[in-house]
Amino acid sequence: MIHRRSFLASLASTLAVRLDAALSRPPNIVFILCDDLGYGDLGCYGSKISTPNLDRMAADGVRFTNFSSADPVCSPSRAALLTGRYPTRVGVPHVFFPQDKGGMNLDEVTLANVLKNRGYRTICIGKWHLGRPVEYLPTSRGFDEYFGIPYSNDMNPRVLMHNTEVIEQETDLSTLTPRYAEQAIRFIRENRAAPIFLFLPQTYPHIPLGASERFRGKSSEGLYGDVVEEIDWSVGEIRRALKENGLEQNTLVIFTSDNGPWYQGSPGKLRGRKNTTYEGGVREPFLAAWPGKIRANRVCDGLASMLDIFPTVTRLCGAALPAKPLDGIDIWPLLTGQKASIDREVLLYFDGWDLQCARWNNWKLHVARHNTAAYTPAPPQGRLNYSLARPELYNLASDPDESYDVAPQNPQIVVEMQRRINSLLPGFPEEVQNSWAEAQKRRSDPAVPAGAYPH
């Protein structure tokens, strides 16, 4: 006969063993990536759009004010996220199209590769946009499963895929967000016994927009607001599924966007939009939550980049780093609040192969500019990159909208940032170096005012 005291002692011992096992298991990673979401499009960043679930996620964890994508357009930004390397290093300087025969370099190791080797179950749900041929699809790049549209929703044919098979030739855009959430919840439920990497690159709010009947007309900010509110709902459903399946305490959830807003959406008070290397094109909302590991209700002003996700997650999960050097750094001390900022090399911002500017702490140095604004026709001689005869320096701490060039007052900062840029460029592919050399030959007119386009 088992006495009550012995039973309780045995039960306590069993629970302790299970707890130790849970704590020793690598953390689950859920990474939700929006497409073309602006810095000012969430309630917790000042938007009028209602985003209670994301606002709650910010309250449960940390909200970054200086998180930067690695590029102002889709494919390159995603390549940087999954490799921890500049997109110009991995063969993704531009956006891919359905008819393209290539994709992200096949010799690159992805975050899914390293986590799968660590024993993770991996899935990509949503927009891939790193190559359409089978050898470039998620199931060839470390993901056990794929469900989604392989490129942007404004590209045709708008097919929906499961793994490598097309399951719908013309996808109903109004159903995508709830279907993505359904797939994510299924994956969580089916794999709760193993560590998981759930990568959910949302299709929206990239245009053309689509929202289900449940959300269409709900927002005061039009269809764009409806779409963002449905994304917010889906984040709440996924976090609820983690809790119901006993995974919440051992899961890092991250939410951000690939680049700034396109024709709709708000960059907040930042200058520029998608396809520009001004802050409005590259600074993103970024939220991270992990109960007991990331302190609640924090705001981090330290600089972080999409390049940093790979090394940070790899270290947290005890996975092996790839042989090729990474451009990102481990930002776990920023996530936990152990540090307010981390010293790092300058971050470079490219438009295609063309270097445009660099950021060092709160300084932003524009060193080159194309001869036409984004979304405008190219001049007769074509779209060309011009080295600025007088580089423009902005202090983003006091001037986040890059309105006041302070280079004349800070010549030593300009010189130091130029030195750092010049020391990094020789390590980039030949296309980058050739582009930079050509830009040096096409110097802008020194009389052109700061912020203007070269003539």
Structural commentary:
This protein is globular. The strands form 2 sheets. Strands 1, 2, 3, 4, 5, 6, 7, 8, 9, 10 and 11 form an 11-stranded mixed β-sheet that branches. Mean pLDDT is 94; it is low at 7-23. It folds into 2 domains: 26-336, Alkaline Phosphatase, subunit A, CATH 3.40.720; 347-441, Arylsulfatase, C-terminal domain (2-Layer Sandwich), CATH 3.30.1120. The chain has helices at residues 4-24, 52-60, 74-83, 111-117, 176-190, 222-244, 279-282, 309-316, 332-336, 411-424, 430-441, and strands at 28-34, 62-68, 121-125, 145-148, 160-162, 165-168, 196-201, 251-257, 283-289, 298-300, 304-305, 347-351, 354-360, 363-370, 385-395. Helix 5 (176-190) runs parallel beside helix 6 (222-244). The chain has 11 helices and 15 strands. Helix content is 28%, strand content 19%. The protein is α/β, with parallel strands linked by helices.
